[in-house]
From TrEMBL:
Stretches assigned to coiled coil: none
Any one GO MF annotation of this record: ATP binding
Keyword Nucleotide-binding on entry: yes
Record protein name field: Uncharacterized protein
SUPFAM superfamilies given in the database record: Nucleic acid-binding proteins, P-loop containing nucleoside triphosphate hydrolases
Keyword Signal in annotation: no
Naturally occurring in which organism (per UniProt): Candidatus Taylorbacteria bacterium RIFCSPLOWO2_01_FULL_45_15b
C-alpha cells in the first residue's frame, strides 16, 4: 500500500462507507492518516444534565430510576423508559421497540447514556439512546483533553464521523496503517531547525502520537505541532503575498484631506477624529509608489463607509498618469446585493453634482448613474454596455457583488479597490479583485468582525491595520436583555410599546424553514417562515410583519427591504442575512431567537444593526435553555465593553464542534487551539516572516511545494 493509493485499498468497504469518506474529503490513504481525532475517550462529549441542548449528541452519566415498560400511547409500540439523574438534573430516556432494556439494566444502577437530545413541551429526553451500566461515575465530567485532569487510560481517539462511517471504523483502519509504518515515509514540511527551536515533534512522531497516544502529553504535543504547522503555513503564505504585492507599483494618488472638501461637505454629519485619522492614513499610503494593503476594522455603525467614500473620492478626482481628462477608477465590492445596492445609493448621494458616473453590477442586473433623461437618478443598463464603459474608463466608480470580479470586468485605470465585510469573501476573490487593470490597485479591506488578536495576526498578517475605535456622537448604547423562556410574553409587550411609538424591529431566527420533524436529529430551532406567521397572527396582529431570508429571489428580497426601509413593514423576521450592513435608522429593536446557536461576536454584530439612529436601541436575546453555562455566556454580551472582548471570550470558550473555525474563519479546529495561544502564534509569525523576507523559503522544496499547493486549493469563500 502506498500513501497515494485510493483509500479503498485500506480495507473492504461498502458503497455507503466510501461515500461517507468522500464527504469527509478523504480520498487517499494519506488523507486517512491526516483525519485527526477531535478528542480522546468520551470525556469531551460528556456533559451535565442541566446543560443538555436539544439536537445535540451528548453523553451523560448518572443513576437510572423509574424504569418501566409499556406501550407507546399512539401506535401501541412496545417501549421502555426511565429517568437518569446527576447532580444537576434529570432527563427522561425512552426506547421504542426495545422493552428488554428495562430488564437489562437494574433500577438505581449507574449508567452511561449516549444519544441525541430531543425536546417536547420544554422537557428534554433521549430517544433510543445507547445505554450501558458503569462501575463508577467518571471523575472528569465535561473536561476536554485540554481541560484539567482527564484520565490517561481513557485515551482512545474519537474521530469526526459522517453518516455511514463511525469513529470506530477510523480507529481500526488507522491503527492498521500505523502498524504498516506508512507514516514514516511522509516527509516533514517544517524545517528541522524550527521544530527543534520550539520543541515540536517530527511529522512521523506526531502522527503516531495523535492517533495512538500513550499518555496525554503525547497527544497534546502532537496537536500542538499540527496547529503550529497550520498557523505557520497560513502566515508564510500571507508574508510571501505581502512581499509580492508590495513589489507592485500602483497608481500614485496625491491628495490631502483638504482636497476632499467637495465630498466631506456632502456628509450629513461631521466626521469623527477616528474617521479623519483613517482617511489620512489611506491618503498617505496612496502617495507611495507601492500598492496599499490595509484593513479597516471598526464596530458595526462606526462609519467605515464614509472613510471608504472619502478615499474613493480622492481616487476619482485624480487623473490617470499623463492624461488631462478622465479619472482613476474605484471598484467597491460588497457581499450581498442588498448591501451593494445600498452603497450604490450612498455613492450617488455623495457624488451627485460632480459629474462622476457610478455603476452597479450584480447578478440580477446593472445600473448606471446618472441617467441620460434624469441627471438626478439612475437607470438600468445592459451588462455589455456597462463593461464597455468600465473598460474605456468612462465609469470611474463600480459598485457590485461578486459579479464585480468576473473575468469579463476590465478596468482602464483601476487604482483603488474596496472590499466591504471582507470576512465574507475568500482569498481567491480578493486576489481576483486586485489583479492588474493594468496596475494593481490600492486595497482597502473592511470588516466589522472584531476578531481575536491571534487570529488577526494570522489571517491578516499581510495587511496593515487601522482601527476605528470610536463611535459617531449621539449613538446610544443598546439595552441588552437575556430573555428566558418564561419572560417571552412580557418582552413582546415591551416591544409592542416601542412599535406603537413608531419604531421597527428585527426578529432573527436561526433557520429558514421548519425542519422535517420525521428526520432524526434535526436542529429544532425557530424558523423564519413559521415564526413570521406566528408573530403576525398571534403576537403583533395590529402591525405588519415581513420575512426575509437567503432563499428568496433577489427581487423579492429587494421589495421587502424597501418596505422595511419605508416603514410599511414594522417587524422584519429574518435569518442572519441582515447581519450584513443593512442600515435602517428607525429599526431600534432586535430580537434574536435561538441565541445558543450563534457566536458572541455574531450576536454582537447582529445587535449592531439597531445602533444606527438616535433613538434608544434594544436587543433581546432569547435563550432556549435556562442552563447556567449558556446564560453566563450570553450575559457577557451585557458586560463586555466591545466586540474584541467578546471575540476573545468566544475563542477561549469555544466548545469543540460548535461554531467551528472552518465555517467562521476558514481554519481547522486544531488551528483554533493554537489561536488560544498568543506565544505560539507569534512564534509561527516570526519564523514565517523571516523565511519570507529572506526568500529562504525557496530553499526548502517542501515549503515551496506546500505554498504552491495551497495557492491551488484556496477556499473560494467562507460564507
Ligand atoms: P459601518 O462601519 O458599520 O459600515 P456605516 O458606514 O454604514 O457603518 O455607518 C453607519 C451610519 O452612521 C450611517 O448611517 C452613516 O451615515 C452614519 N455615520 C457615519 N459617520 C458618522 C459620523 N461621523 N457622525 C454621525 N453619523 C455617522
Ligand atoms: Mg458597513
Amino acid at each position: 500500500m502506498k500513501l497515494s493509493d485510493p483509500v479503498t485499498s485500506v480495507s473492504r468497504m461498502t458503497p455507503i462507507q466510501q461515500n461517507a469518506l468522500k464527504n469527509l474529503g478523504i480520498t487517499t490513504v494519506r488523507d486517512l492518516l491526516f483525519h485527526f481525532p477531535t478528542r480522546y475517550g468520551d470525556a469531551a462529549r460528556m456533559t451535565t444534565i442541566d446543560s443538555l441542548l436539544k439536537g445535540d449528541t451528548a453523553v451523560v452519566y448518572g443513576k437510572i430510576e423509574k424504569l418501566k415498560t409499556g406501550k407507546a400511547f399512539i401506535k401501541k409500540i412496545p417501549m421502555a423508559e426511565g429517568t437518569v439523574n446527576d447532580d444537576t438534573g434529570t432527563v427522561r430516556c425512552i426506547w421504542f421497540n426495545q422493552p428488554y432494556i428495562a430488564k437489562m439494566i437494574a433500577e438505581g444502577a449507574l449508567v452511561r447514556v449516549e444519544g441525541k437530545v430531543s425536546e417536547r413541551n420544554g422537557n428534554r429526553s433521549f430517544l433510543n439512546p445507547k445505554i450501558e451500566a458503569v462501575a463508577s461515575l467518571p471523575s472528569a465530567i465535561g473536561m476536554s483533553l485540554f481541560g484539567e485532569g482527564s484520565d490517561d487510560h481513557h485515551l482512545y481517539p474519537v474521530y469526526p464521523e459522517s453518516r455511514g462511517i463511525s469513529s470506530n471504523w477510523f480507529f481500526h483502519a488507522i491503527q492498521k496503517m500505523l502498524r504498516l509504518n506508512l507514516h514514516e515515509s511522509i516527509q516533514d514540511p517544517i524545517p528541522t531547525e524550527i521544530l527543534k527551536k520550539y520543541n515540536l515533534p517530527s511529522l512521523a512522531t506526531a502522527i503516531v502520537w495523535i492517533h495512538a497516544p500513550k499518555k496525554e502529553d503525547n497527544a497534546l504535543a502532537a496537536r500542538k505541532r499540527f496547529s503550529f504547522e497550520e498557523i505557520f503555513f497560513i502566515q508564510l503564505e500571507k508574508q510571501i503575498a505581502k512581499r509580492e504585492y508590495e513589489a507592485n507599483h500602483s497608481y500614485k494618488i496625491e491628495k490631502s484631506y483638504s482636497d476632499l472638501k467637495f465630498l466631506t461637505d456632502k456628509f450629513p454629519f461631521t466626521l469623527t477624529a477616528g474617521q479623519i485619522n483613517a482617511i489620512n492614513g489611506i491618503l498617505d499610503d496612496f502617495k507611495k509608489p507601492r500598492a496599499m494593503m490595509r484593513l479597516l476594522e471598526g464596530d458595526v455603525g462606526s462609519g467605515k463607509t464614509a472613510v471608504a467614500a472619502a478615499a474613493a473620492w480622492a481616487t476619482v478626482s485624480s487623473r490617470p498618469p499623463k492624461q488631462t481628462f478622465g479619472a482613476l477608477q474605484v471598484a467597491y465590492m460588497a457581499p450581498t446585493e442588498i448591501l451593494a445596492t445600498q452603497h450604490f445609493e450612498s455613492f450617488i448621494k455623495y457624488f451627485v453634482g460632480s459629474g462622476i458616473q457610478i455603476a452597479l453590477i450584480t447578478s440580477s442586473g446593472c445600473r448606471k448613474f446618472p441617467s441620460k433623461v434624469n441627471p438626478r437618478s439612475w437607470t438600468t443598463i445592459s451588462r455589455a454596455q456597462l463593461l464597455k464603459w468600465v473598460a474605456n474608463g468612462e465609469i470611474p466608480v463600480l459598485v457590485g457583488t461578486h459579479s464585480l470580479i468576473a473575468e469579463s470586468v476590465k478596468f482602464k485605470h483601476l487604482a483603488f479597490a474596496v472590499i466591504d465585510e471582507q470576512h465574507r469573501f475568500g482569498i481567491r476573490q480578493r486576489q481576483k479583485l486586485i489583479r492588474k487593470h493594468p496596475k494593481v490597485p490600492h486595497l482597502l479591506s473592511m470588516t466589522a468582525t472584531p476578531i481575536p488578536r491571534t487570529l488577526a495576526l494570522t489571517l491578516y498578517g499581510d495587511l496593515d491595520l487601522t482601527v476605528l475605535d470610536e463611535m459617531p456622537l449621539g449613538r446610544k448604547r443598546p439595552i441588552t436583555e437575556i430573555v428566558l423562556p418564561k419572560d417571552r410574553e412580557a418582552t413582546y409587550e415591551k416591544i409592542r410599546l416601542e412599535l406603537k411609538r413608531g419604531r421597527q424591529a428585527y426578529v432573527i431566527c436561526p433557520r429558514i424553514d421548519e425542519p422535517d420533524p420525521a428526520k432524526e436529529g434535526v436542529l429544532l430551532a425557530r424558523s423564519v417562515k413559521a415564526e413570521g406567521k406566528m408573530l403576525q397572527e398571534k403576537v403583533f396582529p395590529e402591525f405588519k410583519v415581513g420575512i426575509l431570508h437567503g432563499k428568496m429571489k433577489p427581487a423579492e428580497k429587494d421589495a421587502v427591504m424597501k418596505e422595511f426601509n419605508k416603514g410599511s413593514i414594522d417587524v422584519l423576521c429574518a435569518t442572519s442575512v441582515v447581519e450584513v450592513g443593512v442600515n435602517v435608522e428607525n429599526a431600534t429593536i432586535i430580537v434574536i431567537e435561538g441565541a445558543e446557536r450563534f457566536g458572541l461576536s455574531q450576536l454582537h454584530q447582529l445587535r449592531g444593526r439597531v445602533i444606527r439612529g438616535t433613538h434608544q436601541p434594544y436587543c433581546y436575546i432569547f435563550s432556549e435553555t435556562a442552563s447556567a453555562k449558556s446564560v453566563a455566556r450570553l450575559k457577557s454580551l451585557v458586560t463586555a465593553r466591545n466586540g474584541f472582548e467578546l471575540a476573545e471570550f468566544d475563542l477561549q470558550n469555544r466548545g469543540a464542534g460548535e461554531l467551528t473555525g472552518r465555517i467562521q474563519w476558514g481554519v481547522s479546529d486544531i488551528a483554533m487551539e493554537a489561536l488560544k495561544n498568543l506565544k505560539m502564534v507569534e512564534a509561527a509569525r516570526t519564523e514565517a516572516t523571516r523565511l519570507a523576507l529572506t526568500d529562504d523559503w525557496k530553499e526548502y522544496p517542501l515549503l515551496r511545494a506546500r505554498i504552491e499547493d495551497t495557492d491551488k486549493n484556496k477556499p473560494i469563500h467562507f460564507e
